[in-house]
Design goal:
The complex is a heterodimer of chains A (143) and B (393). Chain A is of the alpha+beta class. Chain B has 393 residues and is of the alpha/beta class. Chain B is globular, with a radius of gyration of 21 Å. Classes of the chains: A alpha+beta (143), B alpha/beta (393). Chains A and B meet through strand 2, strand 3 and helix 2 of A and helix 9 of B.
Chain lengths: 143, 393
Amino acid sequence: MAKGPYSDKVMDHFMNPRNMGEIADANGIGEVGNPACGDVMKIFLKINDDQVVEDVKFKTFGCGAAIASSSMATELMIGKKVEELLALTNQAIVEALDGLPPAKIHCSVMAEEAIEDALKNYFKEKGQDPAIVDEMKAKIRKN
Amino acid sequence: MIYLDNVAGTKPDAKVVEKMMPYFTEHYGNPSAHFYPIGREAFEAMERARGQVAAFVGAKAEEIVFTSCGTESNNLAIKGLLKNPMNKGKHIIISEIEHFSVDSVTAKLRNDGYEITKLKVDDNGLVNPDDLKNAIKKDTALVSIQHTNPEIGTIQYTDKLGAICRESGVTFHVDAVAAAGYSELNVKDLNCDLMSIASQNFYGSKGAGALYIREGVKLSGIMDGGHQERGYRSGTENVPAIVGMGEAAEIAMNDMKVYVPEMVRLQKKLWDGLGGMFDFLHFTGDKDRRRPGHVSFWIEYIEGESLLMWLSLKGIACASGSACSSNILADDEEDLAASYVLTAVGVPSDICAGSLGMSMSKYNTEGDIDKVLEVMPETVKRLCEMSPMYNRK
């Protein structure tokens, strides 16, 4: 069959999304996007006392690339420490998916933003200043 | 594969392809070369096709100019009229749901000092003829309003719009690309001066279109060169495609009365089936005045491209008007614009991301529609389960 605009990896994650759903007792939920732009991404995190991602789920309203980006992001997140999540860039998601069409790169950016938003809410829930996420990210970028 | 994107182009009729073949293999001469047989044969075949296309739209053969596609016909109609020295008008009227090839051509003309009025359509996509009457001014040069909208299927009151133009002495162009082969297109009944059609939409091949130019309407060519097509369109004609277009026109003329009612019957079956399936599915376009075999809708909570992709994986090919799939090979996301047609018919821009169009051809069967109705519930359910918006209901 003729290949479409997406890589086999994207098609695989689109057809068989990993970790799709919700976590009832999530302690960090991130949501980004806007239905007007055609994408809404929601990420549910369960982070344990050692600051390790025990479970992660997603729900996405969006195109094939958005669904695949969220699915791949969850695979890259599970078992990682919080600071490792902050080091996870959209570029890493694109690479893991064997590339995205240029017009769809924003879907991977949304996934990175959803993770960031979820972590901010995680710190907020713990009574910490969510700005810590920005500080940590800035530090990682510097190194 | 079940093919339901026929407004993008139909499967060519086998009889059409058969007629085209000798113009690749035997009569391959240039139709402008009259003094040896293979050139003369090409010329004569082309003129026969001109007669067939003319008969198809109720025109005279000399009123038909062959082009390469519907977009070219629309470009020639609009730019050719305005470029002609006889034209003095500086005002153009179109509707807000025209094809890109009318919408973007007129948008660019704005830079050349033309004033463009875009008539609003109602929620079913219809232009109110009274609005046209009120919009015509002394310096209106052209009214260009499509016959059938490919995205939402709506058929305008073209004859009434034409009568208003005729009364006011304004040239009336009709983009009938999505209509040819599905609606009766008689240029006299429709009161039009210019009409665009394309072969690929009625079982001919890609690469041939036509523009009807009513006798007496003054148009200038927009492609300079060897003066083919009486100067309206320089450049060697695509003889095989044109021969195919003539044959396709003749077949459509004879067979429409048989296949159109069947397409309407299948359309009703698909419409009723989908309508009864989900209360969050909303049809677009006019229920009655629509292209036979055309069903279009949007679904809350679901984005169009992912629905399109799933249906494709299930062997069903259709079209999405969603922002995300509009131009996937574009260089950046700025080109992923929401459909202006859907926005114009009042579909809220925050949910029209889920729009889908299914357009049948004479080849679709009852079994095709049964399959769509079988596949849709599981596909929609799957995407709803994935959607963060579905639970909020």
